[in-house]
Amino acid sequence: MIIDLHMHSNISDGSLSPSELVHLAYDNGVQLMALTDHDSMDGVHQASSVAEELGMGFIPGVEVSTGWGGRVIHIVGLGLDASAAGVDAFFRDVCTKRDRRGQLIGERFASFGIQGAYEGALSLADNKDNLSRTHFARWLLKAGYVSQYQEAFDKYLKTGRPCCVEIDWPGLDEVVELIHSAGGMAVIAHPGRYAFSEDWMLDELFKKFQALGGEAIEVCSGSQTRDADQKFAEVARQMGFLASAGSDWHTHGGARPLPGHQSPIPEDLTPVWRFLRHL
Ligand code: AMP
Ligand code: MN
Ligand code: MN
Ligand code: MN
Fold first, then answer.
1. Do residues 136 and 152 lie in contact, with contact meaning Cβ atoms separated by under 8 Å?
2. Nearest CA-CA partner of 74 in 247, 192, 212
C-alpha cells in the first residue's frame, strides 16, 4: 500500500490547493494520505471531500511548530478533529504570531535597504493568514534580490541570519496535549533535520516527547537522508515508537520526492496508520 502522511498545500507553504494536492497524490498511486499544512487545518475539509470522491484513504493532519532546546521542532498531528474544542483558536493564535513576525522581518529587510518585503511576501501567499519565511524567499527571488531561492535562506532567513525573526512557538507539552485532546496521535517530523549543538539533545527530545505521551516518529521522510531513515528506524525499534512516513512534498520543482515516493518503512516496525481511523 502506498502511503504518504506528510504533505503541504497552499494553505501553508505548498503551491497546490488542497484539492490539486489530493489529485497529485492520487495520480502518484497514493492510497492513504494525510494533509499536514504548517499550523493550520483549514485545508482538511476540502482535501477530505476530494479524497472521498476519488475513493482514497484520508487522515486529517497538521504540522505544528514548537520550540524546544533552542530549536524549532515540527510535530505532525494525525487523525485529530479540526472542529474539536480549542483547535481553531490554537492555530489562529499561531498564525497571528506569524503575521506579526512577518512585519518584523519586513523591518529587518528595510534596514538592509530592501523595501516592501512584508507586502511582497504577503502578495505571494495564497493564504494571507499563514505567512511563512518561504514567501519571503520567493519574493526576494522574484524581486531580484537573490539569484537562487536557497540563497534567500542562506543569506537572510535561516536561523542565525539577520532577517530571521524567532517566534515564541507553543511548547512541546502544549502541542502534544492539543493533538491528544482533539483525538489525534503525535509524531516527531523529520528527526534527521534538527541540528542540535549537542548530539544527546536529540535523545532528550525523544525521551521528553515519549514522556508526554507522543506516539510516533517519522522514520521515512522525503526531507531527510536515507541514512537518517535507517538511523531513526533503529530509534523507533529501541524506544518503541510507532513509525510514520511522508514525502513532505511542497511544490513541483522542489527538492522533495513526489507524493508517496519516500522510502517504505521497514517491515518489522509498527506503522502509525494501523491505529488511525480513515475514510
Ligand atoms: P516558517 O515556518 O515560516 O518559519 O518557515 C519554515 C519553512 O521554511 C520550512 O517548512 C521549510 O519549508 C523552509 N525552510 C526552513 N529552513 C530552510 C532552509 N535553511 N533552507 C530552505 N528552506 C528552509
Ligand atoms: Mn514548509
Ligand atoms: Mn517540517
Ligand atoms: Mn512539512
1. yes
2. 192
Ligand 1 pocket test target in 134, 158, 251 with most atoms within 8 Å of CB: 134
Query: From the CA of 159, how far away is ligand 3's center (Å)?
Result: 14
CA 132 to ligand 1: nearest atom: 3
**By alpha-carbon position, which residue is closest to atom 15 of ligand 1?**
158
Residue that is written with C-alpha cell 499563514 in the block: 130
Q: What's the pLDDT tens digit per position in 136-189?
A: 999 999 999 999 999 999 999 999 999 999 999 999 999 999 999 999 999 999
**Which residues lie below 8 Å from residue 177, measured CB to CB, with a gap of 6+?**
212
249 DSSP 8-state letter:
B
**Residue 134 Cβ < 6 Å to ligand 1:** yes
Q: Which of 30, 32, 40, 31 is nearest to 8 (CA)?
A: 40
At 55-86, the pLDDT tens digits run 999 999 999 999 999 899 999 999 999 999 99
> Does ligand 1 lie within 6 Å of residue 223's CB atom?
no
Question: Where in the chain does DSSP place strands (E)?
Answer: 3-4, 32-35, 57-68, 71-78, 185-188, 216-221, 242-246
Q: Is pLDDT at 277 greater than 80 in this prediction?
A: no
pLDDT (tens digit per residue) in 7-24: 999 999 999 999 999 999
Which ligand lies nearest to the CA atom of residue 14 in the structure?
Answer: 2
Residue with the smallest CA separation from ligand 1 atom 3 is 132
More confident residue, 195 or 115: 115
